[in-house]
Amino acid sequence: MPGPAAPGPASPSGTRPASVPRDVLGLLAPAAGGPAFDEHRPPPAELVADCVHCGFCLPTCPTYVLWGEEMDSPRGRIHLMRQGLEGEPLTDSMVGHFDACLGCMACVTACPSGVRYDTLIENTRQQVERRHTRPARERALRAAIFALFPYPKRLRMLRGPLRAYQASGLRRLVARTGLLPRLAPTLATLESLAPRLTRAPKPPDRVPAYGPRRAVVGMLTGCVQSAFFPGVNAATARVLAAEGCEVVINPARQGCCGALSVHNGREKEAQEFARHLLDAFADTGIDYFVVNAAGCGSSLKEYGELLRDDPRYADRAAAFAARVRDLSELLVELGPVARRHPLPVSVAYHDACHLGHAQGIRTQPRELLRAIPDLELREIADPELCCGSAGVWNVLNPEPAARLGERKARDVLGTGAQLLVTANPGCLMQIAAAIPRLGGSTEPRPAGSGGIALAHTAQVLDASIRRLPVDRLLS
Ligand code: SF4
Ligand code: SF4
After folding, report:
1. Strand ordering across the sheet containing 215-219
2. In this structure, are strands 206-207 and 245-248 parallel, antiparallel, or unpaired?
3. Tell me, what's the pLDDT at 45?
4. How many Cβ atoms sit within 10 Å of the Cβ of residue 153?
5. What backbone phi and psi angles, to 5 degrees, belong to 178?
6. How far is the C-alpha of 280 from the C-alpha of 273, rounded, in Å?
7. Strand, helix or coil at 247?
8. 77 with 28: CB under 8 angstroms?
């Protein structure tokens, strides 16, 4: 491997997924078939060439931190892409290393040479999905995941049985036996990730601006967000309205934005979802399109790229993408008009990777939180390291995801804050699932007793603007 050796990980831990054979030297077993990549959007050779092998990205890469393997680092994966471009076949081993990447983009932030690893891995994943046949069991698991998660109506149908399961006390019983993780790790992961469900009233089509209207804003309801965190969407709409935005929701017309598909190389599926969303908001006269889920926001900002070869949608997609804003981004851009009331609470803010690394949004949420009187903001150690959620990575790779989740949860609890705040439903579920494994709790508890409550940034702002008692956030 060219280039100076990078420092090894501080403490490698966890088990590599079975699908990732050890390949320290990158000596990949030859496979039948032609070169790894076809001509439809291969990883661009000029971007691969930008990597100077310095290794600065290695300590921020969660898979390198876990396993200490060069081929599970950004530099190693770029090396594999170069091999593919030089005509090497797409081997199981190569695919394993690409699949093991969380797509967290910490390496993009860390790279002093500006290597566009985001474009590289996205193009590579599309090639893998088209040109590689996975083992039958993995194909079945992926088929099940992609038949469920990008469909909010199907997810909402799970709410009833899930609420009944949670209310029955079965959840505690299942946890006590400890059998589920041993018998069915994927199911155990899904079970542990499911948040405590509350009522989910249907969002209105439109919410009028409070006071003089400053903007008309479309709002994404999302898949997991709408099914499992309806309170976050309701808070988002209220905050926007309080800040003078008329909010266009059109919940019946919305579907998935395609983020999950695009992050997993399912290009055509992602394009279909994108076209559908563009049609749902055509002629609504929106000035901005607001997103409160980090992974969705980063994909929506790339719609122009996703549909660039579609003559009917390319221009519309690019124009739409230019209007996309994360909630915190838009609120800072507009400036506050709604009065903030005191919230005496200590908050640990977690940078979701697709907000911090992929969109470069770190200061805005902090600025909004600091503007709330009596709120004390605390920083979490190693903020650049992913919590292990990464879309459906934690479902596909439950064991290493659990290790990353526990590492993040330990750092979160280490702040001693009463409330963990972040802007992504996946992170909330991942960290909430890890805290009890460390003996902590996300249930209401006295301060200092190893517990921490969780909330989205929108819910904190909403509580402050509406002058709610802080207990509403902590219970
Ligand atoms: S995206 Fe994240 S997991 Fe993938 S190579 Fe970069 S830092 Fe590592
Ligand atoms: S991706 Fe960037 S930081 Fe990582 S080895 Fe290449 S040039 Fe260095």
Report:
1. 206-207, 245-248, 215-219, 288-291, 324-326
2. antiparallel
3. 98
4. 11
5. 70, 10
6. 11
7. strand
8. no
DSSP state of 18: T
pLDDT value at 319 more than 50:
yes
- Tokens representing 327 are 């909630």
Instruction: For 81-136, write each residue's pLDDT tens digit.
Output: 999 999 999 999 999 999 999 999 999 999 999 999 999 999 999 999 999 999 99
DSSP result, 262-331: HHTT-HHHHHHHHHHHHHHTTTS--SEEEE-SHHHHHHHTTHHHHTTT-TTTHHHHHHHHHHEEEHHHHH
Whether 101 and 77 have beta carbons less than 8 Å apart is answered as yes
CA distance 170 to 167: 8
Question: How many angstroms does the Cα of residue 49 sit away from the middle of ligand 2?
Answer: 10
Q: What are the start-end ranges of the H helices in 86-116?
A: 92-100, 106-110
Of ligand 2's listed atoms, the one at least distance from the Cα of 110 is 3
What is the total residue count of the chain?
475
Question: Measured between alpha carbons, how far is 227 from 160 in angstroms, rounded to an integer?
Answer: 11
What are 245-287's pLDDT values in tens digits? 999 998 888 999 999 999 999 999 999 999 999 999 999 999 9
Question: To which H or E segment does residue 216 belong?
Answer: strand 215-219
Tokens for 463?
Answer: 């509580």
The token pair at 219 is 């709002």
Q: Which atom of ligand 2 is nearest to the CA of 54?
A: 8
- CB of 103 within 6 A of ligand 1: the answer is yes
CA atoms within 13 A on the CB side of 438: 25
Instruction: Give the residue from 1, 14, 23 showing the smallest Cα distance to 95.
Output: 23
Q: Establish whether residue 115 lines the binding site of ligand 1, counting it when its CB lies within 6 angstroms of any ligand atom.
A: no
Q: Tell whether pTM > 0.85.
A: yes
Burial of 150 (C-beta count, 10 Å sphere; 0-12/13-18/19+): buried
410 DSSP β-pair partners: none
- Out of 54, 60, 63, 121, mutate this one to test ligand 2's pocket (max ligand atoms within 8 Å of CB): namely 54
Percent helix, strand, coil in the chain, to 5, is 50, 10, 40
Please check the confidence at residue 22 and state whether its pLDDT lies above 50.
Answer: no
∠ Cα 225 300 214 (to 5°): 85
Element containing residue 206 per DSSP (H, E): strand 206-207
Residues with CB under 6 A from ligand 2: 51-57, 74-75, 107, 110-111, 113, 115
